[in-house]
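Standup notes
- DV: blocked on the single-chain target, sequence here:
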Amino acid sequence: MMNLIETAAVPAGALPRAALAEQLRLPGGFPSDGALDNKLDSCLRAALSAIEARTSKALFQRGFTWRLGAWTGTDGQKLPIAPVASLDALSLILRDGSETVLEPLDFRILEDTHAPVLMPRSGVLPALPHGAQIRAEITAGFGAAWEAIPGDLCEAVLILAADYFDMPQSREAGLPGLPGSVQALIEPYRTISLRGIGQ
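- DV (later): unblocked, structure below
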């Protein structure tokens, strides 16, 4: 069992609302009651979520909680998201709910474009008793600002958000298909499955 939960949402002020408005060629300079801004933000958040899900990449840097019920190897464990900026906390939670805090400095992150790996600095990963879980607090993402995200991923977000703006039923239904232009832009960032550490 593996579970990844976002613990901090992308701030509204970080969303590229103006860039999406320009992509949609919306007229500017008029007062807004907030409804248009809310719609733009909703489309951007839906596009970000869809692209992050397809690529296993966090675009905006923020916090996540990761829970794991069993290691897939003793020498390292693949993390479910990239790029990882830091390992902030690590705990072993036993079946009875008792918790042992592990020292994050005893571990390191092996950087990888698609699948960073949590590794012990020495020896092997700690044994997990039956029914126990590992809980990790991590910070992941390309950066806190839109400008820190690779340009092709930014373009994919804007294209998909514009598509959602024009066809809101696609966003609301969570339809699995992505426009071909978006698929082409995100393809280099999709996770490549290879056998090895933490697989």
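- Follow-up: The beta strands are 2-6, 62-68, 77-78, 84-93, 99-102, 107-110, 117-120, 133-140.
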